[in-house]
Amino acid sequence: MSSYSKLSPFGYYGRYYDGRTGDSMASEEDKNRFSFKNCVWFIVSSFFQQGPDNGSPTCISGRIVAAAWWVFCLLVIIMYTANLTANLTVSNMKKPIESLQSLLEQTEYQFGTIRGTSYENIFSGSKLSLYNKIAEKMV
Question: What number is the average pLDDT over the span 75-100?
């Protein structure tokens, strides 16, 4: 925004420029109003929704950049608030089934495979006792 303010004919420098002599008739306060340091302060204060204390840009290009920054800040704050609300309201549910052993021990869910598939053959023809118990309990 500092460069927009300095390069724009409608900025602080352009409004007080004397075309005949090439001198800037802007006061020192106007020259420093949108310096780089003041632009950084303007951006930070806009992000925290405090409002700038050194004025707003006078040129249209600077105002467009400032408006785009304000919209971006507003979107960031909205997304942060929405994610924080979602994370605080959703309770972490415990997974009822975490392994084959917990699948075998639970009684709430029924489980099974399609008959004649390789999965049924793996469970019923296995040498592992866990797989055999699961094959017996399948629906």
Answer: 86
